[in-house]
Amino acid sequence: MKIVIIDYGMGNIHSVAKAVQVCGAEPLISNKETDISSADKIILPGVGAFDDAMQELNKLDLVSLIMEQIKLKKPFLGICLGMQLLLDKSQEAQGTKGLGIIKGEVVKFKAQGNLKVPHMGWNDAQVVAHGSPLLTGFDGGQVYFCHSYYPAPADQSVIAATCDYGLEFACILAKDNVYGVQFHPEKSQALGLKIIKNFVERC
To answer: Which of 119, 163, 186, 203 is catalytic?
Structure first.
């Protein structure tokens, strides 16, 4: 099985690759069309700004390629910023279009009380929709976050798990062959590895 981690210059790619290896697969880090188009499964990680990420994906001619692979029903996993890019747009970058695979907007947290922005550290993921292969044997629990924005999908049925940080927000999305996690599974110890292992073996 060929699992490609898309390298577009943003994200802790090697940590994700190491986690995939621990889960029994040998990932390929690449931004080449031949590698991505021949992949069985694709992971889009990401750390940084929404507009910078879309700019890099466009510069590398990866946007249409990603869309094609998703239309071919290949399992696709977005992590952190990579998840946010799946939506239409972000409050972080007015005027910048996301991939638009999942309808909705990426919204900024509002600092309140002792809740600081960014939302950084361990927090509890709560499963709200069972049935996705990504969540096989995953009943929620403490996972690691580092983000100032969160996805607000238009269709609530794509929300598979939520987290509370002053408000309830989606932390796992699942729509057909497309999955997104707002937390960092590669930094979330056994629970995070469960998510990655499910993606490798079940999605």
So the answer is: 186
Whether 23 is a known active-site residue: answer no
Is residue 169 domain-resident?
yes
Catalytic residue among 80, 163, 171, 203: 80
| Range(s) of the domain holding residue 125 | 3-89+103-201
Report yes or no on 96 lying in a domain.
Answer: no
CATH number at residue 78: 3.40.50.880
Q: 141-186 pLDDT, tens per residue? A: 999 999 999 999 999 999 999 999 999 999 999 999 999 999 999 9
The total of structural domains in the chain comes to 1
User: Is 80 considered catalytic here?
Assistant: yes
The edge-to-edge listing of strands for the beta sheet with 178-181 is: 27-30, 3-6, 41-44, 76-79, 178-181, 168-175, 159-164, 119-127, 141-147
130 is catalytic: no
Q: Which of helix, strand or coil describes residue 169?
A: strand
| Per-residue model confidence as pLDDT tens digits over 136-148 | 999 999 999 999 9
Q: Is residue 54 part of a domain?
A: yes
97 inside domain: no
- pTM for this structure? 0.98
